[in-house]
Amino acid sequence: LGDSAGNPRFVETLARRGYRLTAPVSVVGEPIARPRRFPRAIDSLAVLPFENAGGDPGVEYLSDGITEGIINSLSQLPHLRVMARSAVLRYRGQRADPQTAGRDLNVCAVVTGRVVQREDLLTVGTELVEVATGWQLWGQQYSRKLSDILIVQEEIAREISGKLRLKLSGEEKKRIGRRDTDNAEAY
């Protein structure tokens, strides 16, 4: 910048604190709108039916089971309204736009997902989308053995609950991980 330490025109050094801009500042043009990042917690959510991305009809039950399991886990949280499975079933088999579906269902956020099974390997991709802006708030892909399906479902629910900015008690966090069975084959 061509500034001198003895007579700074633009940046002043503050001992043990850092730097300070000393140059004149003026606004040029329209102010840039800053993205809004969750000023408040998300209090309503819809988990759309997970897509059977591999197209294997034998995997449809896994897609439905993961969707239902996540709905059941998240609905245990007292400060979160979760759309019932019956309310989101109309989106099954469709590539629904998360924002449109979220507005139709009157929720703050939508969870979407894809499931692919190749032999004993299960790949589940998920994302959490804010309905008002369309921003992806969280996304993750899980590749695990089919026998770990319950663990994957639990991880997804835990990750989502962590992104909702809800203050959860220890008991509420335990509710998310509660399983009806530990037997993957029974599931």
Enumerate how many helices there are, as a single number.
5
Note poorly predicted spans: none
Secondary-structure class: alpha/beta
Q: Could you give the count of β-strands?
A: 8
What is the H/E order? EEEEHEHHEEEHH
Distance between the termini: 65 Å
Nearest-angstrom radius of gyration? 23 Å
Shape: elongated
- Percentage beta strand: 15-25%
Percent helix among the residues? 25-40%
Main pleated-sheet profile: 6 strands, mixed
Give an overview of the whole structure:
The structure is a single chain. The chain has 187 residues and is of the alpha/beta class. It is 27% helix and 25% strand. The strands form two sheets. Strands 3, 4, 5, 6, 7 and 8 form a six-stranded mixed β-sheet that branches. The protein has a two-stranded antiparallel ribbon with strand order 1-2. A hairpin with a 5-residue loop joins strand 7 and strand 8. The model has no long low-confidence stretch (mean pLDDT 82).
Descriptive keywords:
six-stranded mixed β-sheet, alpha/beta
In a nutshell, what does this entry contain?
The chain is α/β, with parallel strands linked by helices and about 190 residues long. It has helices at about 60-75, 85-90, 100-105, 150-165, 170-175; strands at about 10-15, 20, 45, 50, 80, 110-120, 120-130, 135-145.
Question: How do the strands and helices of this protein lay out in sequence?
Answer:
Layout lengths: L10 E4 L3 E4 L22 E4 L3 E2 L7 H15 L6 E2 L2 H4 L9 H8 L3 E10 L2 E10 L5 E10 L3 H15 L6 H8 L10
Parallel strand pairs: 3-5, 3-6, 4-6
Antiparallel strand pairs: 1-2, 6-7, 7-8
